[in-house]
Amino acid sequence: MQKIGLIGVGLMGHGIGKNIAAKGWELHFLHHDGNQPTEDLIDLGATRHDMAADLAKACDILILCVTGSPQVEDVLIGSGAVLEALRPGTIVVDCSTAIPSSTRALAAKVRKVGSELVDAAMTRTPKEAEEGRLNLLVGGESDPIAKVRPVLETFAENIFVAGGPGSGHQLKLIHNIISLGTVTLIAEVAACAISDGMDVEAMVDCLRKGGAGGAALERVAPYILERNSDLLRFTIANAYKDASYYTEMANELGATRQVADAVHKTLGNLIEKGAGDAFVPEQVKLLQSPQA
């Protein structure tokens, strides 16, 4: 039985860990003050570790479910000292949202110590993580991807292999700038309409039945109608981070990014006003004119 390690038992990582353990794999996880409650993982037979390096030494597959490139780099080559603790043949699976160039550089470092790195960025929400129904956007070499696929299938409904190292993270940034950018645009337009006294039920009904319908609208519509953000519990700060990563990637590639820059600026302005911890649908209220 392979031993599966997990660093990052947050809103997404908890569901990942629960499904891995519940489906018969031997789970090991890193204790951290930012974790969700882990008693249920212990009840499923999981083992807690207090040091990242000790966890790495115990595992055949190590899953990272942290915020982004700075955190992944810190775990692997910074304070976590995981890179030097990896056993030869270990496969590191990076489920964060990260800058592809950083991912490729880390993959090369991991390969030098006889291990492999697979990027497996996530889409969907903590609800789907708990249900084992995430989408995974995967990049890496074919052999390590094949080896980790049975573990990924414990918590993923769909697995998209985008190409070599960094490709999964690249696809995630493309996905998120479109999805979060669309939500931001809908929120901005809804804020304008509400400020002018428009019937929001009529507006949402019209959007649903026209070309503006889709997943982005359905995630923000409950906030427009009822001030309910439960369908997209993703903070403005995290959205800004993802938009920042996309614009950095686009800049490295020399790609046009005017629309992405506008989304990035809108989110950044809200953070400057102290709204970073608000959920993305709350832009509907935050972007309303002061007199509304």
In summary, what is this structure?
The chain has 292 residues and is of the alpha/beta class.
SSE layout:
Blueprint: E1 3-7, H1 11-22, E2 26-30, H2 39-43, E3 47-49, H3 52-57, E4 61-64, H4 69-77, E5 91-94, H5 100-112, E6 116-123, H6 126-131, E7 134-139, H7 142-152, E8 156-163, H8 167-195, H9 200-208, H10 215-226, H11 236-253, H12 258-272, H13 283-286
Parallel strand pairs: 1-2, 1-4, 2-3, 4-5, 5-6, 7-8
Antiparallel strand pairs: 6-7
Helix pairs in contact: 8-10, 8-11, 8-12, 9-10, 11-12
Describe the fold and architecture.
This protein has helices at 11-22, 39-43, 52-57, 69-77, 100-112, 126-131, 142-152, 167-195, 200-208, 215-226, 236-253, 258-272, 283-286, and strands at residues 3-7, 26-30, 47-49, 61-64, 91-94, 116-123, 134-139, 156-163. The protein has 13 helices and 8 strands. The chain has 292 residues and is an alpha/beta fold. An 8-stranded mixed beta sheet has the order 3-2-1-4-5-6-7-8, with helices on both faces. Helix 2 links the parallel strand 2 (26-30) and strand 3 (47-49). Helix 8 (167-195) packs across helix 11, helix 8 crosses helix 12 and helix 9 runs antiparallel to helix 10 (215-226). The relative contact order is 0.10. It folds into 2 domains: 3-165, Rossmann fold (3-Layer(aba) Sandwich), CATH 3.40.50.720; 171-286, Orthogonal Bundle (N-(1-d-carboxylethyl)-l-norvaline Dehydrogenase, domain 2), CATH 1.10.1040.10. Helix content is 51%, strand content 15%.
